[in-house]
Amino acid sequence: MIFSGRTDKGKVRKTNQDDFAADTLSGGSVFAVVCDGMGGANGGNVASSTAVDIISESLKSGYNANLDENGIKVLILDSIKKANDAVYEKSRSDPALFGMGTTIVTVIAANDKAYIAHAGDSRAYLIDDDIKKLTRDHSIVQEMVENGKITQEEALVHPQKNIITRALGVEESLEIDYSVHEFKKGSTILICTDGLTNLVSDEDIKETVKREEPEDCIDKLVNMANSNGGSDNITVVVIRNV
To answer: Residue ranges of the PPM-type phosphatase domain (predicted)?
Structure first.
């Protein structure tokens, strides 16, 4: 497997509150984690970097090629719980950080499968001949779409589109969505923050990923988001099963 990732401040925000990590694991597996922090000038940075550091270290130290599917699930969910505990404790111990949190998407790609856990509105996609969203946004507008109150098109420009209903570190416990997907040779997993998906269409993401090598497609996607306004921090990681 080959992978690449990049984070960019965008054209409007003064700081980058996104963070990410991606690396190899034993047996040729790969992990990636993407976070989009929130909570004031410093809180978002602290939440996202803390979560990425803890989850990365936990996955790297706990993973081995002999883990079965349940073992991988336990490892991912336990890693996110550790991060939630740490971010929540920091927010309680420092008034300047009170209420901070972060979205989270974590993936382990192993044995032609992708094991994905997430909370918030950062996303995971599977891209081959088509593009398929593997995560459900935990957001106000997503609930409104599902309840038939607004259309998917209206959700893209809704004034509450940035309000999420789940975030790591905000409460003592966190409900995490977890899923397993076939990840065949030639396919690509992409995980990203909403700084990409609010500004670049799924179709453009698909065509760029299909056309380019991982490192090149990352740069092109970030540049596309910036060309379309760069209104938020942008983070993208791709993993390709070769």
So the answer is: 2-241
